[in-house]
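pasting for the record
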Amino acid sequence: ASASGSDSAAAAAASSDSALDSAASTASDEADSLLRLRRYCVEMVKPNPIDRQIVRIALPAVGALALDPLVALADTALIGRLGALAIGGVGISNNVFNMSFTVFNFLGMATTPTIAQQFGRGELDKASRTIARGLWISAVVGITAIALLGSLSSPIVRFFGANELVTPYAVAYLRARILAAPLFLASMVCQGAFRGYQDTRTPFLMSIAANIVNLTLYPLLIFTLKLGVAGAGIATAVSQATLTLGLLTLMIRK
């Protein structure tokens, strides 16, 4: 009986030691997990040069995206003072313009990664040739668009839903705005190139300048010179020219 009691006591002691070891191991694992979590959190909030560079590139790009709808809202408010027919005509013309050139978004999308790779490898001559090809394509396509949309503007806007009352407004705006088609396409190339050079600040600042020109010319041409929707189209074309020529000038200096 005495031996049996001793065995039971030994077994109980061994079981207790095993439980203590298991608890200690679990506590050690939890401590290690908390330590790793703490280190991860510290690394997440620790300043990183790459993070700062991402913010430097991203913020101006976001600002440029936010700028366009705000300016479009102000433009619509000014055109609205000309009446419902003017708003309808400008809206249809913008649809025609945007749909005509959406397919050429590749000018900016393809330029950015190509320039980034060439810039990263130090192949600046190749980067210059890439930009030049994009500008030549912009010139050829833009001049062709001026000829086609300018001569066929009336049937095109009617195809897009303009009736006989809205058509004169749509045609007047489209023919004025289409004059900047080559520069509109060239701006895609220029902005794509600046993004490839990791510079989104310059296009953002130039967009601000161009939109200031746009908002200044809108009331001047529409109401002071009484050009109506044609004045709105001219103002948009001039602001586009301001953006593109400014980017080209800065790119040459760059």
